[in-house]
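debug: dumping io for the single-chain case to check the tokenizer round-trip. Nothing else runs in this session.
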Amino acid sequence: MSQRTPDHEIDPQFTSRWSPRAFTGEPIDEATLLRFLEAARWAPSGFNAQPWRFVWGRAGTPAWGPIFETLSAYNQLWAQRASALVVVLSQHRWVPPGKTELQDNTTHAFDAGAAWGHLALQASLSGWHTHGMGGFDHAQARSNLGIPDTFTTHIVIAIGRVGDKSVLPDSLQARETPSQRLPLAALASEGRFSITD
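debug: decoded output
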């Protein structure tokens, strides 16, 4: 497994979290899954709007199928061994404090991303792993799960215990290692945008 080394000293939880595809298929109990969602609930939020929402299903329950069938065939290949699937969505239209009409919430996706980050870190701290997937049918998810038009679907998260990469198709086994990150200097600049690709 590749070593991740930060440019500056940070808590090890940030570099130990990664997104595997090989899962054991071990069942996850509802209380454990709800603990991850509870961490997401405490994410920062503009105007305290808390626009994020989650629809979840554990493997072997009736809630699993309607989520799993929205995944692309590629993601179904490996996500079938996950313990739970969680759809992340957020409310892009809302009534702000002091207003009476629906308006666009311009930070809904940003806030939902923060909540997903909290969920991923809590899972990692608890000995579980997560893998976010953009490869799913958004329209089918909206239909299958009864999602209103005022919400945007973002990702489906696979949650599970890390398994041996041999359970994956050959094409995915070589990728089953924590990915690296761009150096901080390529991502952050002081005072003025000066970052180049």
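debug: round-trip ok. The chain has seven helices and six strands.
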